[in-house]
Amino acid sequence: QQFFAAYVDILPLKWNLHVIPQAVTCDLYRNFNDYDFVGNMDEDFMMDLHRMAEKFGGALPDVLDDVFGYRSNLELLSITSKERDGRQKEKNVSV
After folding, report:
1. End-to-end distance of the chain based on CA atoms, in angstroms?
2. How deeply is 55 buried, as exposed, middle or buried, from its count of CB atoms within 10 A (0-12, 13-18, 19+)?
3. Range in 17-31, 33-47, 48-62 the model is least confident about
4. Residue 39 near residue 48, CB atoms below 8 Å
5. pLDDT value at position 21?
6. How confident is the model at residue 95 (pLDDT cuts 50, 70, 90)?
7. Which of 60, 66, 10 is nearest to 36 (CA)?
8. d(CA 7, CA 25)
9. Cβ distance 64 to 49 under 8 Å?
10. How far apart are CA 82 and CA 25, in angstroms?
11. Helical H runs in the chain?
């Protein structure tokens, strides 16, 4: 705990205290291009969850929906498949 506290204390306040420790642990800056999916937790988060569920399939869509309720959120946002596809083309997201 003392080492973690010291680590957090030296990080600049504008750095993301959630992502930085994870990124350092997994050498994210060296391995970024190896990821199959990159999403953002921003206003398009539910759309990113939908894209990830569609891309990887299996049990993932149900698990993501159980945790985040992304399906109902997409319905509440009244985003049609056509709008989703159009918005996705506008986003420059690495896959």
Report:
1. 36
2. exposed
3. 17-31
4. yes
5. 75
6. very low
7. 60
8. 12
9. yes
10. 39
11. 2-10, 19-25, 28-31, 45-56, 60-68, 70-76, 81-90
